[in-house]
Structures are given as structure tokens and as C-alpha cells.
């Protein structure tokens, strides 16, 4: 199953405070789009809207050409939308194996889930009996991705994968994310600091105070935009 993801003029609010002011974004099947921007810009909210966890006030959410605005998060998950939240989304008190075992709700067997997980992240096989919370941050992030892959995602939404990880670990994780995209998954990656994700991103968008200020290739112009942003000239 492959799908593109589109946001058209999306506004979203927490109570009376609007935090997204008309966001337009498109992630094609097989593409990686990096959504960058400073603290509080609305990046996580954008992912939450895409997963149906946060309602759209106005605008449209379109999945594989189908309008899914207002759809229940469970229906979007069933349609292949997988959100991996910041903070890794693993059960820290359970072993790696049990974290994967829980994904049998997808209808797959434990063996099938482990096969996919261990092929992509061989270290998880070595750590199968280890309690997830005692693994390194990078290994936990691999486990979170492996759990996500068990859902056969068409759209993968990744929030700050790099949080607290060493640059080399982040680079390796993003190489895997790039490979996942090449299998036809639409990947939307939120990052505050850009470097590693830009190596694999097809496009980037910069969100500032709930508005997309730049959208285009991850090239020199983007780097200038980011420099201006982080040097505070916006
Ligand atoms: P960060 O990089 O710091 O995680 P972000 O770009 O992901 O930031 P969001 O987390 O989407 O930004 O937050 C956007 C705005 O919405 C912020 O001003 C934030 O305080 C506010 N906000 C986020 N979640 C809630 C909530 N549950 N209730 C009220 N306001 C919220």
C-alpha cells in the first residue's frame, strides 16, 4: 500500500490559540520531506494533524488522493499512517522482544514482525531479551522504527528522531529512513536542527510561527533560509 500525504491550508488550534495558520504540505509516496523550524513553530502539531490526533479547524487532509479531513486517528492508522512521537514510543520496562510482540495486533505473526525488524536493524536481534529502557537512545529509536514498520506504513511521521543522539547515530538512523522511503513510504520528518535529515530529504519546508516560510529543495537556498532563521533575522 502506498499513499501520498497532503495538507491543504490547514489551520489548527489549542483552545482559542491558533498555532497553524494555513499549512500546505505534500509528501509523495517514496519521498522524504523534512519539516524544520524553531521551538514552538507548530511542527509537532502538524504531525498530529496528519495522524488525525489533532483536529483541523479549517483546511483539508488528503491521503492517497482521498479527503480524510476529520477522520478518526484509528481509521488513519488503519489506512497506513504511522506516527512515531518524540520520546521514541517504546515501552521502556518491556524487553525488545515484548515490544515487538505487542505489534501482533496488526495481524502479523511474531516471527514476521521480528524478521522485518531484525533484517533492518540487526542489533535488535542481539538485544532481543534486553529491557528496552536500558538500551542506548539510538537502539531505542531503532526499536520505535521497527515497531512502526510492523504496521506496514504508507505514511511515516517522525518527530525529532535525532533528539539526544550523537550525530553518527542520527546519520545511521536517517540512512535507514531513506531506505524505508525508497520502498514507497511517504516520510515526513520533523527536526529542529537539520543537518542529518537534509542528506536524505527530497524536499524541505521551514515552519515559523505556524506558517511555511520556505518550501523547496534541500539546497543552498534552504541553508540560507535556515541560517537567517537561527541567527534570528526572521
Ligand atoms: P518543539 O520543537 O519545541 O517541539 P514544535 O514546532 O513541535 O515545537 P508544537 O509542539 O507543535 O511546536 O507547538 C506549537 C504551539 O502550540 C506552541 O506554542 C505550543 O506551546 C502550543 N501547544 C502545543 N501543544 C499544546 C497543547 N496540548 N495545549 C496547548 N498548547 C499547545
Automatic annotation (TrEMBL):
Keywords: Amino-acid transport, ATP-binding, Nucleotide-binding, Transport. Belongs to the ABC transporter superfamily. PANTHER family: HIGH-AFFINITY BRANCHED-CHAIN AMINO ACID TRANSPORT ATP-BINDING PROTEIN LIVF. Signal peptide: none annotated. Coiled coil: none annotated. It comes from Nocardia fluminea. This is Amino acid/amide ABC transporter ATP-binding protein 2 (HAAT family). PROSITE patterns: ABC_TRANSPORTER_1 (PS00211), ABC_TRANSPORTER_2 (PS50893). Residues 5-234 form the ABC transporter domain. GO terms for biological process: L-amino acid transport. It comes from the Bacteria. GO terms for molecular function: ATP binding; ATP hydrolysis activity; branched-chain amino acid transmembrane transporter activity.
